[in-house]
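We modelled the chain as a single entity of 115 amino acids. Its sequence is:
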Amino acid sequence: MATPRDLEFYNGEHWVINFQLNDGDDTDLDLTSSTVAWKLNSNAGAAVMTRTIGDGITLTDPTTGLCSLIVTPTHQTNAGIAANTVYVWSITATLPTGLVTVQADGSLHVKPALV
């Protein structure tokens, strides 16, 4: 079951999100040889951006399910991210066994840049 988590970031700044991925019993997932993907969609469901391991996602400690996502201003510009917009996101892990699990999801509100 995905953990709901709503986010807010400023447009044009680095977005950093840390995740602890685990199974349904709260046991840390071993992400060794796994695929992790973070997806951002419009409220209508259209794909806006995907980040994966090596392309925005870093496995901080694969054996304990720790990973980090960084979305740069360039990523935002290339994806056409707009201020004052609410998007929908999710992070999934695909384990070496083929099991796909949605770990967390929620809304992401992009606020106007401060400068």
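As a brief sanity check on the tokenised model: The mean pLDDT is 95. The beta strands are 3-4, 7-10, 15-20, 35-41, 47-53, 56-61, 66-71, 85-94, 100-111.
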